[in-house]
Amino acid sequence: MTARGAATRARIVEAAAGLIYDRGVGGTSLDDVMRASSTSKSQLYHYFADKDALIGAVIQAQTCRVLAFQATLLDHVETLAGLRGWRDAIVAATEAACGVGGCPLGTLGSELADRSENARALVAEGFQAWELRLASCLRRLREHGELDPGAEPNDLAASLIGALQGGLLLAQTTRTVRSLKLVLDMALEHVGSRAKAGVL
Amino acid sequence: MTARGAATRARIVEAAAGLIYDRGVGGTSLDDVMRASSTSKSQLYHYFADKDALIGAVIQAQTCRVLAFQATLLDHVETLAGLRGWRDAIVAATEAACGVGGCPLGTLGSELADRSENARALVAEGFQAWELRLASCLRRLREHGELDPGAEPNDLAASLIGALQGGLLLAQTTRTVRSLKLVLDMALEHVGSRAKAGVL
DNA sequence: CCACGACTGGACTTGACAGTCCATATGTCT
DNA sequence: AGACATATGGACTGTCAAGTCCAGTCGTGG
User: Fold this and answer.
1) Residue B60: what pLDDT?
2) Residue B127 and residue A173: Cβ atoms within 8 Å?
């Protein structure tokens, strides 16, 4: 693929990701994508076998987006108190959007998991990667003596992500950030309960 | 509406709810509903103004279904240990289905919240009702001296539901019950941390 | 410069879907 | 019985979406 081709492909994925985030997979037609990316049908079908292939690329793009955002929040976290900054940033972002949109990965998972095995697996990979990054951040905290040596970074990471997904789903449907705050605070408290004695 | 009419209407809603639970709103056509309920177009449009109106009825039906299921689990809970039965039943049901389907209310919320304000509000009402029932169960526990007088039943209920939603979403996309278990155990531990001194 | 593969434009086909329309049936009340 | 509201059958329309096809253009290596 030439540089021009790669740019076109990227433009298509970018546009599709935006439309799908706003309107869902079912609510986004290829004609919408063409308009938003200034491309033609032949271009879409030149770079993607069919709509499902495009969706697959969108899932991977959204995974990258989520991981990048999480990295900006987690990379400099060195203490349990720092983890609260993660919570606050997510709550602030959700509040700013009134919950609209939700998690780019979570909404895709909910819409596609039971409809396309391929899509489901891709979203699951995204969550897996996310959990790994979060776990390694927690492992760092444990190494720094913030967390008890018996704390399980992998399990804690899964709980944190689960709490976040539930909170975002409720924020999306209630247009309120109340449940998100409660569930994230619960998760933080849970991590805190695995703090090394004397740290808190 | 005559009794026969009411029966027809109920058959339509029932069939639509089943199809939508399996295939999503976008993946369910009115022709599908007709076939599954043995009705004709005129009947659909006799009882519902348009597809959105039918979806609204489906949301209310699924709300009833969820509340009824939750009632069977919660009505006889009188202790914190009893609450663990609630967790176990949900995990068992999810495991049996390999996570497929998810929460009838949660999946509808995720698909519709940003697409239809009316649908969003209906799903939000459903969650609200659910939270109320769960909170009154927790309040009973508090009255029975299981929970500390300072425990907040409403907040605890919201956390429990949020954790459940996140766990079900992850179960659906990973086809694993691991995150669901972790997040529900975390929520139970959180409730336990509000137990009356000496109960645990 | 020219040949060939990568790339692009856009018309066209096919099918599905929401919603309309009118004719007919059913049942109840008088 | 018969009038009238409720209920039902099913053909029809218009729209929109996915996917196909072919005629071109671009750009780079030989």
Assistant:
1) 98
2) yes
CA of A195 to C1' of C17 (A): 57
Which of the nucleotides in strand D have any atom less than 7 Å away from a protein CB atom?
Answer: 6-12, 16-23, 27-28
Residues whose CB falls within 8 Å of the CB of residue B118, separated by 6 or more in sequence, listed in order: B52, B56
Contacts of A19 (CB under 8 A, 6+ apart): A28, A32, A33, A36
- CATH of segment(s) A50-192: 1.10.357.10
Please report the residues numbered 21 through 50 in chain A whose beta carbons come closer than 8 angstroms to any beta carbon of chain B. 22-27
Q: Which fold has domain B58-192?
A: Tetracycline Repressor; domain 2 (1.10.357)
Place of tokens 């991981």: A67
Write the pLDDT tens digit of every residue in A132-146: 999 999 999 999 999
Best of A110, A134, A138, A180 to substitute, by most chain B Cβ atoms within 10 angstroms, is A110
Q: How many residues does this entry show for chain B?
A: 200
Domain boundaries, chain B: 1-48, 58-192
- CATH dotted code for B1-48: 1.10.10.60
Whether A1-48 shares its CATH topology with A50-192 is answered: no
Task: Look up the ipTM and state it.
Answer: 0.96
